[in-house]
Structures are given as C-alpha cells and as structure tokens.
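User: Just a sanity check before I run the rest of the batch. Below are the structure tokens for the first item. I only need the designed sequence back.
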C-alpha cells in the first residue's frame, strides 16, 4: 500500500494521506463496490461473479491449496488423502479443489481458519486445508509452530492468484495501482535492494510468513514477461 501511495503522490504531485479502514471477509467487497474504500488488497481471488460489480488489479501474489497437519503426518497420494478427515471453510476455492480432486473425501466444514486450527489441535480433523500463505501465518502464530507441517511442501495443489479489489470503471486509478504492483514485482525479480528487503521481511526464511521462493519467482516472472518493463529510473 505504501508503494501505491507513493505512486499516486508522484502522479498527482501532492501528498496523499493513507487512511486505513477496517473491513472483514463479509463486507470488504461491498465497501469497494459502494466506494466506501478505494482499494482492498487482501487474500482475494478473481471470479467472474465478483467482476460484475468490482474491478481487479493485476495479480500481486500467488498461493494455492495446501494442508496443515501435525508434524510427521504424510499424505502422498489422493487415495491416502481419502483416508483423512480434512477441515475446510465452506464455499471456498479450497473446498472446490478438494472435492474435484477426491469427490468422496471426508470433508469437515469449519467456520474459520482459527476454528479449523482448533479442531486440528483437538484431533477432530487430521488436516486443515487452505491457502498456503494463510496456513503459514496460522502455523507461525501458534505457540509451538515446530509441531506443525504444511503439505505438499514447496508445491501447490492449484494456483490461487491474489489481486487488489477496486471500484468499477475507474481505469486511471487501476492503471496507477497496476503500475505500482508491477514496480514491486519487477523490483523483486531484478533484486532491487528495497524490494528484496521487503519480500525477505515477509516471505524469507526468517520472515513473518516464510514462503517458497521458487514459486514466487516463477509466478512473478510470468507476470513481468506479459507486461512492458518499467524504466529502471523508477527504482
């Protein structure tokens, strides 16, 4: 968000105040649609249904379905997955992916990530399925993160691309946001010190939510290859 703020200040040639508004998973799309907020950059994926009333930026992150399990638990095949009780939030892409992968899977619906982790700790379920990056944050928030694993390791069952959500039909604003996101992506790929430090702080081995670097590099390189490069003078 700070990079977007800086880009808007440059474009308008005046200081811009960044005002943070608290939203939740139930109301953030409505807030954007009704222009109560100008942008929301959370774990939001593109869908055609959402596109009917809001716009999306280019993707700024990629994750996908993985499973949080007790350390030592392995799931090496779909057949083995079917023997496990897997918790997942209802009406999510994670649920859809699991049901497509194994239609007769023992899916146990949970109310939230915290509810899913609680049921996992209590032994009610054998694994909790969700977006890998969110599972990393959940694992690292536990008092004993070393007791949990995320599987498959360094691999995603499917890709889940996150994008910022914007009010509909404001192409100038979307262009500013897209330019800012691409600047971050390009900075990461060319190992610009500012953005390398930013990503290391969040997703590096000692970061807030460690995440496989190879997945990010491959995905970001694909986005960068599909767009015109930003002049290096912008860094």
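Assistant: Here's the designed sequence for the first item:
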């Amino acid at each position: 968000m700070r990079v977007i703020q800086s880009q808007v200040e440059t474009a308008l040639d005046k200081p811009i105040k960044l005002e943070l508004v608290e939203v939740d998973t139930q109301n953030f799309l409505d807030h954007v649609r009704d222009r109560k907020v100008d942008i929301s950059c959370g774990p939001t994926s593109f869908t055609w249904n959402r596109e009917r009333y809001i716009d999306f930026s280019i993707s700024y992150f990629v994750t996908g379905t993985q499973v949080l399990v007790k350390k030592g638990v392995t799931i090496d095949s779909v057949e083995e997955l079917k023997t496990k009780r897997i918790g997942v939030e209802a009406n999510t892409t994670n649920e859809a992916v699991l049901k497509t992968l194994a239609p007769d899977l023992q899916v146990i619906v949970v109310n939230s990530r915290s509810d899913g982790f609680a049921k996992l700790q209590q032994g009610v379920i054998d694994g909790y399925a969700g977006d890998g990056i969110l599972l990393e944050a959940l694992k690292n928030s536990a008092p004993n993160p070393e007791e949990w694993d995320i599987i498959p390791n360094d691999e995603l069952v499917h890709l889940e691309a996150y994008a910022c959500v914007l009010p509909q039909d404001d192409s100038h604003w979307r262009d500013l946001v897209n330019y800012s996101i691409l600047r971050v992506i390009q900075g990461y790929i060319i190992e610009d010190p500012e953005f390398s430090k930013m990503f290391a702080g969040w997703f590096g081995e000692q970061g807030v939510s460690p995440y496989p670097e190879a997945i990010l590099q491959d995905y970001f390189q694909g986005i960068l290859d599909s767009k015109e490069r930003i002049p290096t003078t912008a860094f």
